[in-house]
Amino acid sequence: MSGERGPQEPSVVLDLSRRKGAATRAAMRDSLIGARRVAAPYLTMTRIALARLGRDRMARAGALVLACLALVAIFADLLASARPIACRRHGVLYLLPDVTHPAALAAMESAPTRRDRSPGDWTLPALVAHGPTETAGDVDALLPPLSAGHPLGTDALGRDLFARVVHGARTALGLGFLCSLVLVALGVVLGSLAGFRGGLVDSLVARLVESLTAIPTLVLVLVVGALVPHPTTATLLWTIGLTRWTELARLVRAEVLRGLGEDYVTAARALGASPARVLLRHVMPNAIGPGIVAAAFGVASVVLLEAAVDFLRVGSPDTMASWGEAMGEARLHAGAWWLVAFPGAALVATLVSLHLVGEAARDALDPKLREAIPDGGGGTGA
Amino acid sequence: MLRYALRRVLWAIPTLLATSLVLFFVTTLAPDPAPGPDDSAGEELRRARFLDLPRFVNTHPLDVESLANAAVSEIASGGAELPRGARELARLGGAALPYVLPLLEALAPEARGRVAVALAPVAERMGVGHGDDLLRPELAVLFWSRFWDDRALDFTRTAVDRAVARLVEHGTDLREADIVSLDTYALPEIVSAMSTSGDRLTLARLTRIAHHATGQGSVLAADSDATQVRRAQAEWKEWWFAHATDFLALDGAERAIAAVTETRYGKWLRRAASGELGVSAIDGEPIAEKLCERAPVTLLVCGAAMLLSWAVAVPLGALGAWRRGRPFDWVSSAVLFVLYATPTFAVAELLRRFTADHAPSGVRAVLAIAALSVGSVATLSRWQRSAMLEVVRQDFVRTAHAKGLPAWRVVVVHVLRNALMPTVTLAGLHLPVLLGGAFVVEEVFGLPGVGFETLRAIEAHDAAWLMAVVLASAVAVTVGLVASDVACGALDPRVREALSLRQGGRPA
Fold first, then answer.
1. Phi/psi at A376 (nearest 5 deg)?
2. CB distance B337–A355 less than 8 Å?
3. Distance of CA A368 to CAs A263, A363, A364, B341, B419, Å?
């Protein structure tokens, strides 16, 4: 990432600026690659950070939990779905009929299962054969865990809790990931612009940051959800993504300002580097650290917000599976401890692991702590 | 110090303006009532939310004069717009007469007759003339030109002011009839008298006159109670705020100002700044009052949670940093970390399960505060701990140790005081989180605060209340941020210097 900052760099750059023409491009490239190769044994910040992150046992545990949750979220349909994973009907083989043959599903559902079955038909059902939105009358309502067919029990509408938790992971992590994409993009761009351009842009961004900070996000999300004519998950996504970038912008701006004062930036400017090159090659690589950390914490805060909003808006027509919504239902049914326990455990596990990873990343990327941590081999005296 | 505080407060003003822009954007998200043909209720709703105005700049602010002229030309043209013009003229009523009647002479005879006939409903409201005469063009024109010769002097602001003052002073039917005969021309004075007068009978008379002239708003019964009086006052104030320009003429300077104020943003901002937050859609109560009624609960919960978490978190974080690496630090860090990641609503829900549903409100309030504090304690003490660790590394701490000071003195006087700074700054930033959390615990424990009411408003889609709540919380948070900045300045002279440098030294 910052390999070109080896000792050879100045001569290389001078070299480039003197020669011109297509014929010399290859030579230029070779010399650049050569410079990189020479610089490679040096420790770069990325390598240090990755090495430190790998050494942190808690961060590894957190990352493992997150990876499992991500797998659960991606393959939620294999774990809990009313539709089979694979089946053979009338001699036709359907793989993941939910995804590949949505049109054939209606017929499959309405067909009487036993009588209509032709020889050679088989079905491979999902781990739990219930979808997250499938309601089953009063008979199955509020079943305790370990009931037949419902390993984690059901909620007041007879929806399978296991399916709700599994698909809730998809909602929480998917939304968290998308939101933090938006907020990291906004935060990095606006923060670096504010730091780099200064003046009017800086003042404008500062005011915007302050004013957005002043509005409690939970309240804003609730209110926007109530005012928009047809609230969807996208509404939630944009509301959070467009308002939560402020903290990151502040960090990136400070980091950019610090970077602009460094000698190597002055040197790059003296060599005639364009402002864009100075920003992108010399200043931003150091400012990207807070962005990575903020992404981890951003996902955590979005997951938390989404859960809180669904917890408060329980009973709204929005039937998407969500941990917060399941926990909110427990408020209405005092005895149903499983409605709090399982989604709550999933939520806390997600948040704890996100924070573990985020904190470890922050520590790993903090250059001030570099001396405090023993050098991890491979260093050639950097 | 005072200068610093004042400067900080002044810097909050552009921030609040920017916030208001963001909030204004949120108001535009609320669904527009679709304007159907001849849907007067929908039209009224649009008026009440200023949807008929341009967003930011009004190049042609309308007043009674321009509206009346437009209506007259519509009637005079006699085409398909005639009924609409006639309706508009009847709505404008007495306020339009000073602009319409002198114009009559200049019109063609036929158009003149049509306009005069269109004024018949106004005359009926004012209780002048005879119904049949006014429907015949020649007689109507004659009537109105005579009317204006006789009564022009009554249609002046000073005359109306005097008449209304007389009515407020001692209400008689005769004086009431006097004002009724001025129709909508007297509305500005009537509405302003409504808000100043506390007498029930006078108010009943005033609302009756206003209702008679406009056909809108409610009439106060003479035997109504204090709440009804308050509601009627709020309702008429609200109505006048949206409709004032229909009955007032703007002169040059007012017209220039109106280019900014007669816009959706201008109206919304003026209303928000003056605390007129509209009327609740749930029970028709004025929102400002309702907010004042509910806010103490929320502020109490927030404030108590803040104090409690400070009282617990600062010593906890300091102890953790002091005993760094020892079992105490290890255990407290682990516990705090899990608490830090636990959502407030989960804590609240767990606490609620251990109490009876019908616990007294005091118990519920204490539990709510405890639930809200858990997250803040975790956050604040973690900040405090890392800030302490940062300061411990500094040279002056080594110096203090080297001077032979006792360890507790180094920690309390030298380290803690410096380490409080970032925590104070961050505590200000933590305020929005705390406020959001207060909404959650209020709902879980059923405390009648702003948050509890807001969730009811969300179910009812009460836009006015929701906007007021976002606005109020933004203001509260801004005040908190300013307070925490000022506290920082009080604790640390370097911060004061930085702010004055930043503002003095930069060309921007």
1. -100, 50
2. yes
3. 18, 9, 10, 26, 18
Distance (Å) from the alpha carbon of B444 to chain A's nearest alpha carbon = 8
Do the beta carbons of residue A319 and residue A168 sit within 8 Å? no
Residue B16: per-residue pLDDT = 81
The percent of residues in chain B predicted with pLDDT above 70, rounded, is: 93
Q: Is the pLDDT of residue B227 over 70?
A: yes
Q: Which residue has the higher pLDDT, B168 or A111?
A: B168
CB neighbour list of residue A155: distance below 8 Å, 6 or more residues apart: A141, A142, A161, A164, A326, A329, A336, A339
Tell which A residues from 284 to 343 touch B, by Cβ distance under 8 Å.
300, 304, 307-308, 311-313, 324, 327, 330-331, 334, 340
ipTM above 0.85, yes or no: no
The answer to whether residue B86 neighbours chain A at the CB level (below 8 Å) is no
On whether the CB atoms of residues A216 and B477 are closer than 8 A, the answer is yes
Q: Which of A224, A308, A340 sits opposite B440 (nearest CB)?
A: A308
Least confident of A121-130, A306-315, B403-412: A121-130
Q: Is the pLDDT of residue A56 over 90?
A: no
Question: What is the C-alpha to C-alpha distance for residues A326 and B353, in angstroms, rounded to an integer?
Answer: 16
Assess whether pLDDT exceeds 70 at residue A382.
Answer: no
Measured distance CA(B373)–CA(B301) in Å, rounded: 10
What percent of chain A has pLDDT above 70? 69
Domains and CATH numbers, chain A: 82-124 (no CATH), 169-371 (1.10.3720.10)
Best interface-test mutation with B: which of A66, A213, A350, A369 has the largest number of B CBs within 10 A? A213
For the cut 60, the answer to whether the pLDDT of residue A48 exceeds it is: yes
Q: How far apart are CA B132 and CA A303, in angstroms?
A: 73
A210 lies within 8 A of chain B by CB: yes
Q: Rounded to whole angstroms, how far apart are CA atoms A142 and A156?
A: 5
Which residues sit opposite A88 in a β-bridge?
A: A93, A122
Tokens standing for A143? Answer: 């079943």
Q: What is the DSSP annotation of B451-485?
A: HHHHHHHHHHT-HHHHHHHHHHHHHHHHHHHHHHH
Looking at chain A from residue 69 to 98, which residues have their Cβ under 8 Å from any Cβ of chain B?
none
Å between B325 CA and nearest CA of chain A? 14
CA-based R_g, chain B, Å: 32
Residue A67 reports pLDDT greater than 90: yes
The reply to whether residue A340 touches residue B349, judged by beta carbons under 8 angstroms, is yes
CB contacts of A254 in chain B (<8 Å) are: none
Residue A128 has φ and ψ, to the nearest 5°, of -120, 125
Spatial neighbors of B13 by CB under 8 A, at least 6 apart, are none
Tell me: the pLDDT tens digits for B437-484? Answer: 998 898 888 888 898 888 888 888 787 788 888 888 888 888 888 888
Nearest to A306 by CA among A341, A347, A349, A353: A347
Question: Mean pLDDT over residues B180-190, rounded?
Answer: 81
Indicate if the pLDDT at residue B505 is higher than 50: no
**CB within 8 Å of chain B, chain A residues 230-259:** 247
Taking only residues 349 to 388 of chain B, the set having a beta carbon closer than 8 angstroms to any beta carbon of chain A reads: 349-350, 352-353, 357
| E-strand stretches of chain A | 86-89, 92-95, 122-124
Residue A68: per-residue pLDDT: 93
Contacts of A354 in chain B (CB under 8 A): 341
The answer on pLDDT for A24 being more than 50 is yes
Residue A69, pLDDT score: 92
Helix, strand or coil for residue B325? coil
Measured CA to CA, the distance from residue B468 to residue B465 in angstroms comes to 5
- Of B346, B368, B342, nearest in space to A339 by CA: B346
